[in-house]
DNA sequence: CTGCATCCCAGCCGATACTG
DNA sequence: CAGTATCGGCTGGGATGCAG
């Protein structure tokens, strides 16, 4: 019922691939995961997603907003306050992206071991 | 039980982030999805993942092999034949990555509409 | 505080040519 | 067929400075 057989990410020219390129991205995964519990202002997002630069966070949020995954709320205050929140569409992506982060955390030891073995054989 | 609270991808220096960086990638998502149904040789993978260049496919497979997600099987034949297959660890990642591709296909119309709206307002 | 503008570097990625 | 090597363009991404 929710199938769209006419779209296929494995086809180079399919527009869905441009969407995949945005969501299959480490910064997107971390930002969307961080927004899963509710609204966050820019500076809190910056500290939650440790190590992200201001430029990259801005760019990532702007693209997510463009794709309709994140909404932006500006408050007319001094100093300025801007909060970001997942849209309903963005929420449907939260679990899948969170799953990637969870996978990385849960299997990191196996991955590190595999890397050691691989590098030793070279 | 399978929890590893000591690892957190949101921490910049956590090694799990290096793993996330590899799996949260459009080429990884497509290659792992393509390998979900079983072994594929290099050339078949190249045509299945439409538009991928030989260099990028080689690089992606090499990194996936290094992280223990993909195994490589070489046949002593002429012409050469090399097949790639998901490891048990790689299989645990298949569903999560497939979910991203499915999401992109199922929601592309909403995303395209959002982009139009966003771009029109600029 | 937010975020734009700029500069600049590193890495991704594609195209091509060449080997076993 | 399955690579490797090389080159070059493009983009991601960090640092800094400035404006609202």
TrEMBL record, chains A, B:
<dbReference type="InterPro" id="IPR036388">
    <property type="entry name" value="WH-like_DNA-bd_sf"/>
</dbReference>
<dbReference type="InterPro" id="IPR002577">
    <property type="entry name" value="HTH_HxlR"/>
</dbReference>
<keyword id="KW-0805">Transcription regulation</keyword>
<dbReference type="InterPro" id="IPR036390">
    <property type="entry name" value="WH_DNA-bd_sf"/>
</dbReference>
<protein>
    <submittedName>
        <fullName>Helix-turn-helix transcriptional regulator</fullName>
    </submittedName>
</protein>
<dbReference type="GO" id="GO:0003677">
    <property type="term" value="F:DNA binding"/>
</dbReference>
<dbReference type="Pfam" id="PF01638">
    <property type="entry name" value="HxlR"/>
</dbReference>
<keyword id="KW-0804">Transcription</keyword>
<keyword id="KW-0238">DNA-binding</keyword>
<feature type="domain" description="HTH hxlR-type">
    <location>
        <begin position="14"/>
        <end position="112"/>
    </location>
</feature>
